[in-house]
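[audit] Reproducing an earlier prediction to check determinism. Same input, same settings, fresh worker. If the tokens differ from the archived copy the diff job will pick it up downstream; this log only records the rerun itself.
[audit] input (230 residues):
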Amino acid sequence: MANVVEIPTDPLDWRPQHARPSRNPRSVADPVIEPLWHGTRVLVHVDASRRAADGGPWYAVLDDEGEDVADLEPEVTAALRTAILAGDAVVDGYLTDQATRPGENIALVAVGRRSGNIVMGHRVDPDVSPPLDDGSPRPVAFVAVDLLRVDGQDLFDVPLLERKRILDSLVTVGELVRLSPYTRPPVEGWMRTWRATGFEGVMLKAANSRYRPGAETDDWTIALSSHSRR
């Protein structure tokens, strides 16, 4: 469960929920498993009923400290304004170049093929080796992982899997806006492939977990690969 945090009335005062450090991954009940994304954690706010200075839909991209970082990745911000199909919404995610690395789609979708679970994205042969990363700069994309609000309704007490289902229906995926794949246990068959593409671990989240902005929760935890601990 999350530690008790009073939820601010103003959505602009919300901050991402985090996993409580040093939690035993085996203690997370009925987990949903996502890649461990790295980058800038942000909450994206969009409101089609309001106008931004340029006349388009109003938006804000707030980091963990509440700073608006929309200007840091203007191409991503422009894509987000049309990719989120809602009158208003608050979406949790990451600004990261991990989503555009070579072989990323192969690594993520392989989980579904090997575990028998559904993972979002194109189905590919999990035994295909991903192309090697040559170290060249990659574009940053926004990867959506959770949904806090849509069309005037807060979703904090909606179970995680239902929030993800709603999120899936709201986001138009493109080069600069992605949905994080997720799966259910077992994921052992995926380990070789995601290590090859540079992911250091996975995030485990209880399927029934709720969301409390700014809180740390026992219902989420991080499991690092043995390779990343060396």
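[audit] rerun output stored. Observation attached for the diff report: Residues 11 and 90 are 8 Å apart (CA to CA).
[audit] end
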